[in-house]
């Protein structure tokens, strides 16, 4: 891995350390300073000249702070004559802002993509975008990974003979179907409506879930309101057990405790694309590492190999 330099922002240094351990290279040091006027400054404390530079920073809460830090890191790397700069963004929060669904609203997913390119990104490596079309907001190469293989490997250790995978809405049914194929199980999907006050209602579940062991699969869980509504509807169908799985475990506002307290829920599984504070850990919560997958993608990008061949969901 000659000619590579990997730096981490402050959003998730533990993940960056784990990725570098997989690559068997040191994590290059960087320094974040805050001035008296509240402005940030980033210094990359290793040589970048003509090197293949990877900047690891999920855009997670506080989102604006971590986004600005990433922009400054990109600017610092470009100013230091980096040969190529890849922004490694395991969780891209603004992918939820992908369309104009009300008058005079901003489309943050596209704006932030433009900002990253303007700041100096030559390439983006990200995982499980909430809206796949956000991939097209970038006018630079984007490697868009998923964690279905890691999640499937976890669930394969149990008995899946009575299991069905359930998507919380029809928009995520394609990914749920790919996940079900990996597990060799049937798939079902919920018909979801979201109202202006952010209330979620599920009118029906399409597919056979009666008496089944259910795995609910979503890309991210923030407040958990959709999952909790789906669990209530599944309870009406006399399911035997419920496991909840997602890539991005954001878990805002006591979501882990609230989901874990629902009848029938035996496990909550996520990956470490976002840091999981010790305060929200639970006996029912299992966190899987995506460091090996990201490290392999970084290695393939650096050595000019195919990334899509490794992470195709089928």
Characterise this structure:
By secondary structure, this protein is an alpha/beta fold. It has 2 domains: 4-147 and 291-311, Rossmann fold (3-Layer(aba) Sandwich), CATH 3.40.50; 148-288, 3-Layer(aba) Sandwich (Rossmann fold). Helix content is 30%, strand content 27%. It contains 9 helices and 14 strands. The chain has helices at 13-23, 63-79, 108-119, 148-155, 173-183, 225-235, 255-260, 291-303, 308-311; strands at residues 4-8, 30-34, 40-44, 52-56, 84-89, 123-127, 142-145, 163-167, 187-194, 200-206, 213-221, 241-249, 265-271, 285-288. The strands form 3 sheets. A 7-stranded mixed β-sheet has the order 10-9-8-11-12-13-14. Strand 2 (30-34) and strand 3 form a beta hairpin. Helix 1 (13-23) crosses helix 8 and helix 4 packs across helix 5. The protein is globular. The relative contact order is 0.13. The model has no long low-confidence stretch (mean pLDDT 94).
Secondary structure topology:
Blueprint: E1 4-8, H1 13-23, E2 30-34, E3 40-44, E4 52-56, H2 63-79, E5 84-89, H3 108-119, E6 123-127, E7 142-145, H4 148-155, E8 163-167, H5 173-183, E9 187-194, E10 200-206, E11 213-221, H6 225-235, E12 241-249, H7 255-260, E13 265-271, E14 285-288, H8 291-303, H9 308-311
Helix pairs in contact: 1-8, 4-5
